[in-house]
Design a protein that fits this description.
Length: 710
């Protein structure tokens, strides 16, 4: 009994299999009239004593001794389980056929226990999860049948058929194809990089090795999650942890390090209650257990407020630095002390309900960004501009709407993380990573986090929108291409009536769902499986002609640029179809792609360029630094075993003449506590190490950063 109870009370079993066991038990009990004995077993299914609707119905059914009331409860149960209603009902019609009256509850429990133990010992956790989630439905049913046969259980043929029939209907009807994007083995566990650490609020001196350029003065500011739980509540997703800000201050070869938690409302409220009060991207806050049942129920109908946990990047507005995420809240931060200043609600100044953490900047200091708005006309994608003038008034980020892009589907706009910009145009990629507005609006009622409202829909095309950033005029045609997912744009520029824009593309948009803390903390074969099943990012180039009209030829490649093999056609129905150029060769495939691209932004943003820098992705997190030549498609790489670098930040040298005259800064961390974390300094031209500054403190995995000059 203890073995079964432990198995069913933990999260080892997936909901579908637990539900299957309940169906089998309820059928058995109803056939043999063992309603009284079922009470103990139904209690087992009440996970952590939370009596959900299904559990409550089953308990009522068990407590009812009478046949009539039992039937009513069974009908109530099947009504709450739409997926299995007709199958359980049809199976019930054949009550008693082929069932032995000698079969007892003890024997049934023994059989179920044997099946569970066999399945747990035969398959890894990742494999079980994939089977139960329906990725391999046929195999799952075969496994169950074979297991029952091998164990020679007390069930006869008709009982096995009933069990497997219900089991198969609990899984999705469509068979999913498992795609492996790599075949790596023996990956190092990086779980220590996703655990809570203490801040380092006072600067500590770094141990500098090598030569740090004397002209380098300023601070590398980094942002990312640092706290993953409050009390007994734990976050689920990489995007959920509380923002921890890092600073490497560099002054004439002397380097210090410090870190501080962003004092957001989310952080302060959660800390005060010692539990998760504010929902994050992948974690829904649960009702206060100290409240009454009615208060907890009514709290589901309260409006959820966006988090101000700005853990993604630092953005510049009017010369100041702001910790940012993808909601409408940003926090002003002192780059010298990392002190949290004012909290800003962008909605108070500009008609957007959020903004990216990757704005663009014009040479005059104007900041461009992108955010959604929701109104009577539906959802719109808005490009906003905040002028560079410093204000002597109270904190204000008054800006203007540059243009509005209308989504293909108002109820399911696309998720986006960044956008492209040239000297005269804005480029927005509407990818088939879709946000279900209805699900977002009902997420709190359903007890779901925001990530449950996002889905990858590969049958849809990717649509590229273009607008004039000076006039706001939308180009009167759209560009279409195959489905892909993009997080980060590399660069974009104009040439002979063409827009050329480059970005890192994933062929599958499920990468958002894969970035759970559970996956990132795996070890051994399970970690290898997580990595191999995750899509990889590769750089691609698109060429968009601007001079299209009714006289433009049909089914003819419109790209006349000699330096790009990208294709673009005007189809018979008027659509402009694009096919990208791969900015890589087989060598990059062998190192599993790259992400987090950066350029010499100060001098080459919106201009034709030759180099970009990024992180190699031969692990579930970045494990190398790469310098890519977009003309030759060859790259240079820095890699050191046991170390994991962050996004590279390019800092141009004061007297630079060439595009790659400067240095690369990257924070490099290790899960091995015997190794020091460090700031790495590379010569951008040769891509070789100039020096490093080691600090004996733990650092977690982070996202993005900027270099703030003194």
């Amino acid at each position: 009994m203890r073995g079964v109870q432990w198995m069913l009370c933990t999260e080892t079993l997936e909901r579908s299999f637990t539900r299957l066991l309940m169906v089998a038990l309820i059928q058995k009990v109803h056939m043999h009239g063992m309603h009284g004995e079922l009470i103990v077993w139904m209690q087992v299914f009440c996970h952590r004593k939370q009596k959900n609707q299904m559990s409550a119905v089953l308990i009522k059914f068990a407590e009812s001794k009478g046949e009539k009331r039992g039937k009513e409860m069974e009908n109530e149960y099947t009504a709450t389980t739409a997926q299995t209603k007709r199958h359980v009902a049809s199976a019930s019609a054949s009550d008693g056929e082929g069932y032995s009256n000698s079969g007892s509850m003890e024997k049934l429990v023994h059989d179920v226990n044997e099946i569970i133990n066999t399945l747990l010992s035969t398959y890894s956790e990742t494999q079980r999860r994939r089977i139960w989630e329906g990725c391999n439905r046929d195999n799952a049913c075969t496994v169950l049948l074979n297991t029952i046969k091998e164990k020679k259980t007390y069930w006869d043929k008709s009982e096995v058929l009933l069990f497997t029939k219900v089991f198969s209907q609990l899984l999705p009807t469509t068979k999913k194809r498992v795609t492996y994007y790599s075949r790596r083995k023996g990956l190092e566990c990086v779980a220590p990089l996703f655990t809570t650490i203490d801040e380092t609020p006072e600067p500590i001196a770094a141990n500098v090795k090598g030569d740090i350029p004397k002209w380098l003065r300023g601070s590398l500011l980094r942002n990312g999650p640092g706290k993953y739980e409050f009390g007994n509540d734990r976050y689920n997703h990489l995007f959920d942890g509380m923002a921890l800000m890092h600073q490497f201050k560099i002054d004439g070869g002397v380097i210090t390090y410090m870190s501080k938690y962003l004092l957001s409302d989310s952080y302060l409220i959660n800390s005060a209650h010692n539990r998760i009060i504010v929902s994050e991207f992948g974690t829904a806050a649960m009702p206060d257990p100290c409240k009454t049942l009615f208060e907890r129920f009514t709290s589901r109908f309260e409006i959820s407020h966006a988090t101000d946990n700005c853990s993604v990047n630092f953005a510049r507005y009017k010369g100041d630095y702001y910790a940012s995420t993808e909601t409408n809240f940003i926090h002003k931060v002192d780059p010298k002390t990392l002190e949290t200043k004012e909290k800003i609600n962008l909605t108070s100044f500009i008609a957007v309900n959020g903004a990216t953490a990757h704005p663009h900047y014009d040479p005059d200091g104007t900041t461009y960004n992108m955010g959604n708005s929701f109104g009577k006309t539906g959802t719109m994608y808005n490009i906003i501009a905040v002028p560079p003038q410093m204000s002597d008034d109270e904190e204000t980020l008054q800006g203007r709407i540059v243009c509005n892009f209308k989504p293909e589907d108002n109820t399911k706009p696309s998720y986006y993380h960044s956008f492209g910009m040239t000297k005269n145009y804005i480029i927005f990629v509407e990818q088939p990573v879709k946000i279900n507005i209805i699900k977002i609006l009902t997420s709190k009622l359903r007890g779901k986090s925001l990530d449950c409202s996002i889905s990858w829909e590969p049958k849809l095309n990717t649509i590229i929108h273009v607008a004039n950033k000076h006039t706001g005029e939308i180009i009167p045609f759209k560009y279409y291409t195959k489905a892909f997912c993009v997080f980060h744009h590399i660069n974009a520029f104009e040439d002979n009536d063409f827009i050329i824009f480059d970005c890192c593309c994933f062929e599958n948009g499920n990468i958002l769902n894969n970035a759970t803390l559970r996956n990132l903390r795996e070890d051994g074969d399970e970690l290898d499986e997580v990595f191999n099943l995750s899509p990889k990012g590769f750089p691609h180039r698109f060429v968009l002609p601007l001079n299209i009209n009714s006289n433009t030829p049909i089914e003819q490649n419109l790209n006349t640029l000699e330096y790009s093999s990208a294709l673009v056609f005007r189809e018979a129905d008027g659509k402009i179809w694009c096919e990208s150029e791969k900015l890589f060769d087989e060598d990059l495939v062998n190192v599993n792609g790259m992400e987090f691209p950066q350029i010499n932004y100060e001098k080459y943003n919106t201009k034709k360029y030759k180099f970009f820098y990024g992180c190699g992705t031969s692990h579930v997190i970045m494990d190398s630094l790469i310098k890519m030549d977009v003309e030759t498609k060859k790259f240079k790489i820095w890699k050191e075993k046991g170390y994991y670098p962050s996004e590279p930040v390019f800092v141009p040298s004061p007297s630079s003449k060439n595009e790659d005259d400067g240095i690369i800064l990257s924070v490099v961390i290790s899960p091995n506590q015997s190794k020091n974390n460090m700031l790495l300094v590379l010569d951008a031209k040769s891509f070789t190490e100039m020096g490093r500054a080691e600090v004996p403190v733990r650092m977690p995995f982070g996202f993005h950063g900027v270099f703030a000059k003194c």
